[in-house]
Amino acid sequence: MALATIVVATTLNSISVCKAGDVAFDKAVGGSKAHELAQWGRRYEHGEGVERDLDKAIRLYCKAAAQGSAEAQYHLGWMYALGRVGARDDALAAAWFYRAAKRKDPHARRMLERLGYQGKPKQQAVCRLTDGGQADRHGRVITAMQIGSDDLPIRYAHPARRHIASMVRQLAPEYQLNPNLVLAVVEAESNFDSQAQSNKNAQGLMQLIPATAQRFGVNDVWDPEQNLRGGMAYLRWLMSHFEGDLELVLAAYNAGEGAVQRHGGIPPYSETQRYVKRIIERLHPGDG
Question: Helices (DSSP H) in the chain: which residue ranges?
Answer without folding.
Answer: 3-29, 34-46, 54-66, 70-82, 90-102, 106-114, 159-171, 179-190, 210-215, 224-241, 246-255, 257-263, 270-283
